Queue: 3 jobs
Job 1
Amino acid sequence: MLSQKLHILNIPELDNIIIEIKDYFNYEIQYYNEKKDLLNKIDKNEKFLQNSIILVNKKDFPSIKNKTNEKYIYCITKFPLKISNLIDQVNARLIQQKFLVQSNINIKEYILDVNSRILWNKNHQLKLTEREIDTIIFLHKENKPVKVDILQNKVWKYSNDLETHTVETHIYRLRKKIKETFNDDNFIKSKKDGYIINE
């Protein structure tokens, strides 16, 4: 599991507090006196802020906000500061980041937004049903042809008494929706040994 990181930019009052209580923190802590040092790290590595929060003062907030998404930033506007509130805010932002990462799945040239139930690329988006989302995720994870009876069991959670053409009809409709929206006939391929989403 990735360690959770706090990047503290130019907040000396906070530095002293955190030094005293760092043993109670569940974070790896990095201090920056110079804004340019932090901005250079953000520029050089797109994953640098993964699982991280930047604690920043009001003066530096606009320039940091221009460089990254606000979900990575917590602006401290005044002191004294309740440490329990700070920890709650940091944890809330880290949970939000985790939720957003888990909700978006890259498949081929598309992004599947699980929470919004939307498949999209840079040009179009398509609203999907929960069953269609489950089907795409299952096929994507398998990365090999999947027989209809496996989909019937694993995605539809039905036993063998469900007619296989019901599953085939759902997949046919899903493939048709994708073709109509994205003009892509190869997103889900039908092979003799089942359906597949090839990366």
Job 2
Amino acid sequence: MEEGKWYVVHTYSGYENKVKADLEKTIVNRNLQDSISEIAVPVEKVTELRDGKRKEVEKKLFPGYVLVKMVLNQETWYVVRNTRGVTSFVGPGSEPVPLTEEEIANMGIHGERRVMKVDFNIGDEVLVTSGAWQDTVGKIAAINEQKQSVTVMVDMFGRETPVTFGFNEVRRR
């Protein structure tokens, strides 16, 4: 049996989960489980910190796109392309192009990404909530979203010193 490859399908924005559900039903109805093996709508869990309260939300990594692992032939192309909400395959013209192994690894299709978003701004006064600096107050000098950290200017021996903390180690005063 031939191993399927991952293809990217463009959908109407907001229809990603509906397209996934409709495709899953069609696969069962047409007995295509051997040809279309997996459908993914990659998401990341984002922890938002607002006014000191944490809220976890799921956000789509690629809004408007669904990933389909399949053996490309006339029947599978037709089924996917004619699913309600699908506008096209990603590729030149109408020719679908499979993703490379490297692209798949970088997309986090199977892994779940966790990200924390905060409503801090440079200059905000924060309180350190854990570690050696617990209960220390300082002002935010820099925010690094990628590393999920903030640099806080704290008073050390009468001198302003930059110290880096994770988003979860500080809260707004």
Job 3
Amino acid sequence: MLKLYTYYQSVAAHRVRIALNYKGAPYQSIFIDMDHSEHLGEQYLHLNPEGLVPALIVNDDLVITQSSAILEYIEERYPERPLLPQDRELRGRIRSLAQLFIADMQPMNVMRVYKYMQDEMGVDYDKRRAWYEHWMSFGFKAVESLLANKDDTGAFCFGDKPTLADVCLVPQVWNASKYGIDLSAYPTVRRIYRTCQTLSAFQAGAPETQADLLAQSS
């Protein structure tokens, strides 16, 4: 069985959980307590020297550590319920939007960046908050422009079935909502997010349903 090292608040791990759930792939969640620096322990660093989540353990010889690589692996291993269509041009567009979230938006708002800005650069809270708001607004404005009033935007980002783009959109919207970003200017993004949240795969992957968070309130 696949083993997924995960943390409830991780945007990258969130998207992988959704994809695994959507595919119906059996996997075991192994929770890494990043609040208490478990990701920096010797045992985990042996698996992933970057000390980040997610990490997918396929077998003793294969550990995949980047969410985009994990998502591609899942798509290839479990093709029965595809997140990428057969049409090559449409696959390119879906991957483009997915990478907007993975490569452009998320790296600008991860906790290690904030901690470095605070501890090493002495950047105060207001400026760190302004940084976060700027890059989230910059990204969501582009996403809204790419999706609004487009012929192939349906109930989801591309058509009426979830794709890799939706898998990547939902965690970023969840993160922005958690930290109080005003999303009122992005009605298409919000509509697609709400639609995704009606599906069990997205519900089961949500941070609020993860055992490491639930254990904190028990």
